[in-house]
């Protein structure tokens, strides 16, 4: 572990903190998770962000939960704009996730975010990247502070694309060399 890093959370008695932290991270990284692009918008500002801490948290109403880093551009836009989109990506689009590990560069004339085309969701207006396999448009329901992240919970108000058939293999964290977790 780098000298500036420290193990976070409880450490069982009698174990080396560095060894235990490496083990815990490996186990958490092994958990199967998808990789998504989360769109956010407040006023004229838009962003797309790579995320993987995503799950459906209720079926009635249809609620989606996304872990978003505290202090991020996306979290600020979701809070201010009151909505977000979540786009599933095709396996072959795995290279794009690195593009959105930092705030997107918006080009309104070209209708792109960091070079990727987008449309605005018809219900909330949050951006939907053109390369998504499928997407969900969500109205913010609540935001729960959880330390390093906030759990953003949104009610699904639209989905697409219309006429979608079987959803092909979607991108998962294990399809890249990106590690996020623990």
- What is the terminal separation in angstroms? 14 Å
Q: Can you write the helix and strand succession as a string?
A: HEEEEHEEEEEEE
Radius of gyration: 17 Å
CATH superfamily: Electron Transport, Fmn-binding Protein, Chain A
- The CATH class name reads Mainly Beta
Can you tell me the CATH architecture? Roll
Largest sheet entry: 7 strands, antiparallel
Tell me roughly what share of residues is in helical segments.
10-25%
Q: Sum up the overall morphology in one term.
A: globular
Output mean pLDDT: 87
What proportion of the residues form beta strands (DSSP E)? Answer: 35-45%
Number of DSSP E strands: 11
CATH topology: Pnp Oxidase, Chain A
> What's the structural domain tally?
1
Indicate the low-confidence ranges by residue numbers: none
By helix and strand content, what is the structural category?
mainly beta
Number of helices: 2
What topology, given as strand order, has the largest sheet?
Answer: 2-1-5-10-11-4-3
